[in-house]
Amino acid sequence: MTEVRVPTLGESVTEATVATWFKKPGDSVAQDEMLCELETDKVTVEVPAPAAGTLSEIVAGEGDTVGVDALLAQISEGGTATTSEAKAPEPEAEPESPTTPSGGSEMDVMVPTLGESVTEATVSTWFKKPGEAFEADEMLCELETDKVSVEVPAPAAGVMTKLLAEEGATVEAGGKLAIMSTYANSSAATDAGGSSAPAEGSSAPARKDTEDAPSAKKLMAENNLHADQVTGTGKDGRVMKGDVLKAMAAPATAPAPAAAPRAPVAADQAAREERVKMTRLRQTIAKRLKDSQNTAAMLTTYNEVDMTEVMALRNEYKDLFLKKHGVKLGFMSFFTKACVHALNEVPEVNAEIDGTDIVYKNYVNMGIAAGTPTGLVVPVINDADAMSFAAIEKAIAEKGAKARDGKLSMAEMQGGTFTISNGGVYGSLMSSPILNPPQSGILGMHKIQDRPMAINGQVVIRPMMYLALSYDHRIVDGKGAVTFLVRVKEALEDPRRLLMDL
Question: Which CATH number characterizes residue 18's domain?
């Protein structure tokens, strides 16, 4: 007799609820076949069979609360026959194998590593259809994560046999995307009629046949919630207890749609509307910006800077700079240096809140916000405080090119301590940037515009730019914010101060 016990649930998690049993007493099970699903406050845990055999007894039923290492069920041994029975359905999933050409072999196309802490992606575009041939390393499809697009190359030359995840399907890191044949003959896969079936398993319609967790159903009934009002995160879209709790907390943000209700639309106008699902990147941008407003005590202070000296210095040395360093001298390196200079004097703008602690950073990882065709991203230049003008310009050019091409990795967008956003390139005269959490400050640059200014009792025309510093008032006082912006202004109006650390 083999015991099935509750596995380790995670740091500080001591108990879980039995959500769903996939097997009943008397059912045959194969080793590592999923027996049941447990639900904690944060995650869903699948429990595999430790050995092949027959499920003889279920000790903890659906809805029961169990602790770590508690007994869930017992499996009786004896089953070479039961093992083969449990795996019998597998050949049914491969009816198309006879179409594989003689001498060819099938190969799985897998989801590549998506980046640190990224566990899933959406299939954005398939470049190859079943039956089409391709070369090794030719792009088969494009995946979209919260931040970046990932291209999936062919692991070898061959023919696409079957797509396991259609466009729009959500896939996990390391999951299967498609099946290919390494025999490069277009007749290798003549029939892909059932190729969309696996993808449907991850789509919304399959939700109709999915049984929600008992604890979730009970909680929904107690709070008058319908399953359509809850987004399920369990297997095949199953609604778990944590999903219901999250939905119950939603009313705090629910009034937002009511503040701007969708007005009635005439029939002739409705026909001219287009509804497009938000991309993962746009959803993430929306969520992070709103979370930032909900979390931080955000405040913005403004100033203006006379760009005369910076522009003169840039015009004087831009040709020599390009010749020596191979990169153009722009304004961003001046602003980065000026911000580093100001952050040294006002370190709380470069700090962050962690619980009840303030974490001061003795380095500056500068985030440079960049607009791309798919949305706003913020690549990070690490240790910008130790870099020269040329090194900063090269880093900005490199990261900007990657951002436009969708080639930024997750690592290149993490760890920022302060951010600069330049809305001036789009013509913005003044705006209030939103913090990039957990950072406590972001500088907004704007359009350079000639304006009449009073200088030494005379009215003269000067190239002026409005600056905006948004900051978290929980950690940065008004005095510190104003001092920071004044130091940036002083450094830009007299760039020699940067050289002398004044």
Answer: 2.40.50.100
- How many domains does the chain fold into? 4
Residue 81 above 60 pLDDT?
Answer: no
How far apart CA 53 and CA 29 sit, in angstroms, is 6
Taking the whole predicted model, whether its pTM rises above 0.70 is answered as no
Give catalytic status of residue 228 as yes or no.
no
H or E stretch covering 162? strand 158-163
| Full domain range(s) for residue 66 | 2-88
Catalytic one among 69, 191, 236, 473?
473
Residue-level pLDDT at 437: 86
What integer is the mean pLDDT of 400-410? 81
Give residue 60's region: left, alpha or beta (phi > 0; psi -120 to 50): beta
Give the span between the Cα atoms of 474 and 485, in whole angstroms: 18
pLDDT score for 202 = 39
Residues 212-229: pLDDT tens digits? Answer: 776 677 677 777 777 777
Q: List C-alpha distances in Å: 51 to 25, 74, 78, 472.
A: 15, 10, 10, 55
Considering 66, 88, 110, which residue would you say is the last residue of a domain? 88
In a domain, 44, yes or no: yes
pLDDT at 268 over 70: yes
Residue of 472, 477, 494, 501 marked catalytic:
477
Give mean pLDDT, residues 316-326.
93
Is 341 known to be catalytic? no
Residues 84, 100 share a domain? no
Residue 368 three-state SS? strand
Q: Among candidates 66, 80, 78, which has minimal Cα distance to 1?
A: 78
Rg for the chain, CA atoms, rounded: 29
| Beta-sheet pairing, 298-306 with 370-372 | unpaired
- At residue 432, does pLDDT exceed 60? yes
